[in-house]
Amino acid sequence: MSSFAEFGTLVKNRHKPKDKPKDTKVALGFLAPWLIGAIFLSLIPMLYSLGISFTKYNMIKPPQFVGLMNYRHMLADPRFLNSLTVTLTYVVISVPLQLVAALALAVLLDRGMRGLAFYRSAFYLPSMLGGSVAVAVLWKMVFGSDGLFNAFLGLFGIDTSMSWIANPDTANWTLMALHIWQFGSPMVIFLAGLRQIPRELYEAASVDGAGKWRQFRSITLPMLSPIIFFNLVMSVINSFQTFTQAYVVSGGTGGPSDSTLFYTLYLYQQGFASLRMGYASALAWIMVVIVAVLTGINFALSKFWVHYDD
Amino acid sequence: MKRMWKKYVATGLAAVTLLATTACGSSVGAANVPVVPANGDVTIRLSWWGGDARIKATEEAIAGFEKEHPNIHVETEYSDWTGYWDKLAVQSAGGNAPDVMQMDELYLAFYGSMDALLDLNKASDYLDLSTMDPSLKAMGQVDGKQVAAPMTTSQYGVIINNDVLDSLGLTLPDTDTWTWDEFSDFAKQVTEKSGGKTIGAIAPNNGYGLQLWARQHGENLFKGNAVTISPETLASFLQLPADWAKNGIEGNAERWSENTAATLNDTDFGKGKQAMMITQATQITPYAQAAGTDNMTLAPVPQVTPGEKTMYLKPGMYWAVSSGSQHPAEAAMLVDYLVNDKNAGAILGTERGIPANNDIRRMLAKDATGTDRTSLDFMDKIQPTLGNPPSITPNGASELDKIIVRYQQDVVFGKRKALDAAKDMIAELQESIDFAS
Questions:
Q1: Residue at a domain's end among B380, B399, B424
Q2: What dihedral do alpha carbons A168, A170, A173, A174 form, nearest 10°?
Q3: Which of A177, B116, B359, B361 could form a disulfide with B111 if both were Cys (CB 3.0 to 4.6 A apart)?
Q4: Which residue spans traverse the membrane (chain A) (predicted)?
Q5: CATH of the domain spanning A68-305, picked from 1.10.3720.10, 2.40.70.10, 3.50.50.60, 3.30.2130.10
Q6: In this complex, do B261 and A251 lie within 8 Å of one another by their Cβ atoms?
C-alpha cells in the first residue's frame, strides 16, 4: 500500500518546496546504503555504458571512439526495428490485458467471500513463479507439439500437433499469455486499493438507485485511478524489459524467425554473442529513451483520467 | 543547493572518467612469460563446455595428469555451450581467461586474431603436434600462428536408425554413392509409410553442413575474410528445409523448427521417431543411448556428384592456451597429455570426437565396440572423399550457426524468398566480418 500512496503524494507535491536542510542531512544518512549502491552499481556503470556507446568495443581490445556510428547503424538495422516491433506489440497487448484480468479478479475477491486469503495466495502464486527460468522451461513444454495445451484442445475435439512455440505467428502470443498469467502483483495492489474506498460511497450510490455496473464505473474506477495509473506505469516499464522468458523459450535465439526477439534479448545477443559491446550500449541507451518517453506519455495522459482525492 | 549539485555531478563525472580509463587500460594482453616450467607448485585452470559424460571423463584424465606431474594442480571449470562463450568473453575482457581452454572452429579466428591465444610453436618443447595429420594441424592456425591444437576431428555423416526402417519394412538403398535425390526419395518413403508418425530426416542447419554443401557445388563458404559462396548455392541450402517440410521428409515446418531448437534427447531422432539424421558421426553414441537402441549405422553424406573429394578433416574441438597464462609451459604439458597420452586417450574416448592423434585413434578402434566402433571405422570409409581443408571461419562470423537457422526459418515460414534471403545473409555475414576486423 505504502509505495503507491507515496508515489501519488510525490506526484501531487512535485512543485511544493522541499524539506529543511537539516532534515535533508539526516535523510541522506539513512539513504546512504542505498545511495552508495545506486551510485557505484547503477549510475557509474550506466554512465560508463554511455561512453562505450560511442565506441567500437569487443571486450578484448580497448574501445575505439567511433562517434555516432552505433546510433547511425541502428537506422539501417532491420533486426533492431523488428525487435522494437516485437517488444511494442508485446507491451501494447499484454499490459492492458494483464491489468484488466488483475482488476476483474480483485473486484471479485473484494466481495468478502470466505477463504479469501487462500484465493489471494492461489492467484498470486503465478507471479512468484512466472519470471523464473523453471516456468519458462515449463511453458516451452506446455505449448510444444505434444504439450499440455494441445492435449487440452484435444478435450474439445480439436486435434492438432501444432507447436505454438515453434511457429513464428504464435510464439510471441505464448509469451504474452505467460505475462498475463502473472496478474498477481497488480491484483494484490488493486485489492489493497479497493479496501481504501469508503463504503459510504457505495451505500449512498445504491440509495440513489445505482446498479453494480454503474457503481463500478462511477465510484470504483475513479477512486482506484491512482492505483491503476501506478500499475500501468510499472507494468509498461517492466514488460519492456522482458528477457528471461524469451531467452529460455527461444533458446537464446529470439526465434523462430526472430518472432520473439525482444529488445533486451537483441541487446544481449549483440553484446555477448556478437561481441559488439558498443552497439549493445547504444541500444541500451535508446531503450532508456524509449521507456522514458512512454512513461512521459503516461504521465501526460494521466491528467485526463487519474483523480487524486484532494 | 544548486552549487552543491554541481559539485556532485563534477565528482561523479571525474569518477567515471577515471573508471573508464582504467577499464580500457586493462584489456587482454600477452603475459610474455618465458615458456619454461616453474620450480615448485603450480596451479593452472582448464575450462570446457559439455555434458555430464565429458565432465566425468575429463576429471578422470586430469587425475592421471596430476599423478604424473605432482607439482601441477589443475582446477576445472565447465558450462554449457552458450554459457561457455559468454563467460569466456567476459573472462578474457577481465584478463582472467583460463590457462587451457576448449576452443571451437567458429571462435578460433576471433580469439586468435585478438592475440588472446599463445602461439603453441613457442611451447614445442612440451607439446608435440606431429602426431596428427598436417592438414588438420593447419586448421589450428590463425595468421600463420599455431594458436590451437586440434584434439579431435569431426565428420559429417548420416546416422541411420535401423530399428525404424525395420519396423516400416524399408530397405536402405546403396549409400556409398548416393545423391541428394536418392536420399530424399528414400526419406520421403519413411514419412509416407508411417503416416507421418515417423519422419525421414531433417535438413542440415549449421555452418558445417553449409560448408559441405558449398564444396559439393564447387564453391567455398569463406576465402580469408570474404564470404565467397554464391547467392544461388546459398539459396538452395536455405530452401532445403522448406522443400523438405512441403514434401513431408521432415513432417512440417513447425516440426523442423522445433527439432532444430530441441536438446538431443527431445529431438525426433533422439526419441526414435526419425529414420535418418545428418550430423557429426560421433553423435551416433549419444543418439543411440537417447533412442534406446544399438541398431544404428553410419552412411556418408549424400553428394551432388558422387565420389567427389568434397569432405575434409574438420577439427571437432581444439585445446588452446591463453596468451595471458602465467604458466604457459605447464599449460602446454597439460594439452600434450590430453592430446597424446595413451591413458588419457583411453579415458576420453570419442566423447569429444575422433581423436586427432592417429595412434590413439587406431588404439581405440582396435578395442571399441558398438556405436563407438562404428564412428571410428567411419573415418576409413570416407577417406577416399577427403579433399583439401577450407579456410577457417573468419573473425566476425562466430554466429554463423544461428544466422543460418534464422534465415532458413524465414524461408520455411514464407517470410522471404530463398534468393533474397541468401543475398541478405551474405551481406549480413560480410558486414559482421568487416566490422570485426
A1: B380
A2: -100
A3: B116
A4: 26-48, 88-109, 121-139, 173-194, 221-240, 280-301
A5: 1.10.3720.10
A6: yes
